[in-house]
Amino acid sequence: AGEVVETPMSAQLAQKVKRLTQGLAFLKCYIPYINNYMTAQRTLNALKSSRSAVRDLIKAGEADPSAGGHDLASFLISPVQRIPRYELLFKEMLKVTPLDHSTRPVIEACFTSVRAVAQVINSRARDSDNVEQFYAVATDLGLINEDFLLPWRRFERQGPVIFHPVPTTPAATATPRRDSKPAEESQELFLFTDCIVTATRKRRHRAPPRFEPIEQISLDYVFAELGRSLGVTLAEGDDAIETEDFVVAITPEPLDAALMARRPQFEQARVLSFTAPSKADARAWVDAINSRATHTINKRLTFGKATLSPPSSRGGDDQTSQHTPQNAVREE
User: 3-class SS at 191?
Assistant: First the structure.
């Protein structure tokens, strides 16, 4: 290995890198811009497509000598690319800086800080994408109101299911009447961070909403199991169950972590029975619902109260309860 050469430039570089490191916190001001970048691009493209005056204004600005030959798109994306460029710059600097060079600790510290800022920005960008997706799903459900669009609520997953009407109590599900043929129904199941929404797809929809909400259920009162009736998972074991069927049990009182772990049979629990498109989908629904329910329960126990009021029966008298979307429970 050759001898490490220290020059006056080394000290100057170290000072500049230190100053940059001290100011890295200000790079977080890029977060709102980056989060809104894709929306801004779509809006700009829509305006350019529909208004000739906007196209002419942009063309005139790009032709101005002060633009330096750059178009509007290159200016708009520059702040988005700035943080990744800093990260790449210091990564490359570390590759060519000897381990025992005096500037290496400073460069390493700056690289670590830049990468941390980049991770924060990426995390906020993902959350912004989820907010946009959440709003789109709420639009599809026709739930654009202050009761549903809560600041902490995010969209998790959705998918088609077949709903099977079952008796109210789990005990009755084991011996269904032979002459009874309850009507099955194609539904769409939506999971959010703190609730479940069941809905039916509208047959004719040229514009949102595309779904008709049936019921909104707080995850404070919910646990899910594989099988057509409550208690099958406990009897046969999680690993023994391979089925497209799963149930969502709605308990009369808020659950806690201990009850979730045991997944008890509640005599008064209301059971919603579904069939997913595949065994993998059924398993994914059960895992996702129980995971989010556990998170919601832990959050409630931390802050001391349930997120929504106690559940009421589907199609019951209390159709304006917070447990269901306002004016969204279908008359049956």
Answer: strand
Question: CA 275 to CA 26: how far, in whole Å?
Answer: 51
Q: Is the pLDDT of residue 278 over 60?
A: yes
In three-state secondary structure terms, 61 is helix
| Type and span of the H or E element at 138 | helix 104-141
Burial of 96 (0-12, 13-18, 19+ CB in 10 A): exposed
Indicate the pTM of the whole model: 0.59
**Amino acid at position 114, single letter:** V
Q: What are 225-274's pLDDT values in tens digits?
A: 888 776 655 455 555 567 899 989 888 777 776 665 555 556 667 889 99
Measure the CA–CA gap between 23 and 30, rounded to whole angstroms: 13
Spell out where the chain has E strands.
155-164, 185-192, 195-201, 211-218, 222-226, 245-250, 270-275
